[in-house]
């Protein structure tokens, strides 16, 4: 999917919502356990109920691969089920020496047909560029993550006072363009999102951390939105586990709609 197609969808749906698919057998409604593939049935219901409000889906690969080969089959079926006009993110956080990254890219872009993959920048340019060689496919590079551990390395400053995440932003912009490279920026990072936006004015940001992790959607929009929105804000648990009963699909729909309505207001305000 191209950047202009993504922006067109955001405008059409008045939404920059990414629904995170983190399906955990321990957490899904109990009645689904009688289904042949409970995780697939769960994701199917979530996708059907939220597709009106979502511009992206982000299956977190860990939740599928934890189930072994069956989990990979389920992931492939889920990916195929997502409507073609909705952006798909394989949240795999990969990255390795070049020839290995190339095969990770093939796995997610060719064997499966994801639009994008999350990639860790730690191993540097040759670990990232193999993912950028696929037409209309995207790398979403970890820049400033939402978790507590982001303090361990990402905010360490060099002798000139530049934080590591800033070096990642600066350097990696030579590897890709705003048409094939996005950044992960945690919603829990408040006004630091504004610093990231200054460093990468054109790029889309994938912003996890609203909902269960407590990040503020209005702050994200205030500090992070650019003239083509430039944001995909993810919520996983806050949507998919809104109810643990038979009404879980409808409850997810309600949460997704709530976020979409807030997003509409923010788009009207800042775009
Ligand atoms: P919830 O906290 O349930 O909304 O889930 C957040 C999702 O985003 C999970 O799948 C995380 O793995 C992912 N995530 C973060 O929470 N923080 C980050 O900094 C980056 C990610 C990610 O790359 O998606």
TrEMBL record:
Membrane-spanning residues: none
Top enzyme class: lyase
Keywords: Decarboxylase, Lyase, Pyrimidine biosynthesis
InterPro entries per record: Aldolase_TIM, OMPdecase_type-2, OMPdeCOase_dom, RibuloseP-bd_barrel
EC number: 4.1.1.23
Domain of life: Bacteria
Pfam families: OMPdecase
Presence of the UniProt keyword Lyase in the record: yes
One function term, GO molecular function aspect: orotidine-5'-phosphate decarboxylase activity
Annotated active site: 93
SUPFAM superfamilies: Ribulose-phoshate binding barrel
Keyword Lipoprotein attached: no
Catalytic reaction list: orotidine 5'-phosphate + H(+) = UMP + CO2
Annotated metabolic or biological route of this protein: Pyrimidine metabolism; UMP biosynthesis via de novo pathway; UMP from orotate: step 2/2
SMART domains: OMPdecase (SM00934)
Ranges of residues in domain Orotidine 5'-phosphate decarboxylase: 16-252
Family: Belongs to the OMP decarboxylase family. Type 2 subfamily.
HAMAP family xrefs: OMPdecase_type2
Protein name per the record: Orotidine 5'-phosphate decarboxylase
Organism listed in the record: Algoriphagus limi
């Amino acid at each position: 999917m191209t950047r202009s197609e993504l922006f067109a969808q955001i405008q059409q749906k008045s939404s920059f919502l990414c629904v995170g698919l983190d399906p955990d057998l321990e957490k899904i409604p109990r009645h689904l356990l009688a289904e042949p593939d409970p995780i697939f049935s769960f994701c199917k219901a979530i996708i059907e109920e939220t597709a009106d409000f979502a511009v992206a889906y982000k299956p977190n690969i860990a939740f599928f691969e934890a189930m072994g080969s069956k989990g990979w089959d389920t992931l492939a079926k889920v990916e195929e089920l997502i409507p073609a006009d909705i952006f798909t993110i394989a949240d795999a956080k990969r990255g390795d020496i070049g020839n290995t990254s190339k095969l990770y890219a093939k796995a997610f872009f060719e064997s499966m047909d994801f639009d994008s993959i999350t990639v860790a920048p730690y191993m540097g340019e040759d670990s990232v560029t193999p993912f950028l060689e696929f037409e209309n496919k995207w790398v979403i590079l970890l820049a400033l993550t939402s978790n507590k551990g982001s303090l361990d390395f990402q905010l360490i400053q060099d002798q000139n006072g530049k934080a590591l995440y800033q070096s990642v932003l600066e350097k990696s912009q030579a590897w890709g363009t705003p048409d094939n490279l996005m950044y992960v920026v945690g919603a829990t990072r408040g006004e630091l999102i504004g610093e990231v936006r200054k460093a990468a004015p054109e790029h889309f940001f994938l912003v996890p951390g609203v909902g269960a992790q407590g990040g503020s959607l209005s702050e994200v929009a205030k500090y992070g939105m650019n003239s083509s929105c430039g944001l995909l804000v993810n919520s996983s648990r806050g949507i998919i586990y809104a109810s643990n009963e038979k009404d879980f699909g409808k409850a997810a729909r309600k949460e997704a709609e709530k976020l979409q309505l807030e997003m509409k207001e923010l788009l009207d305000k800042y775009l």
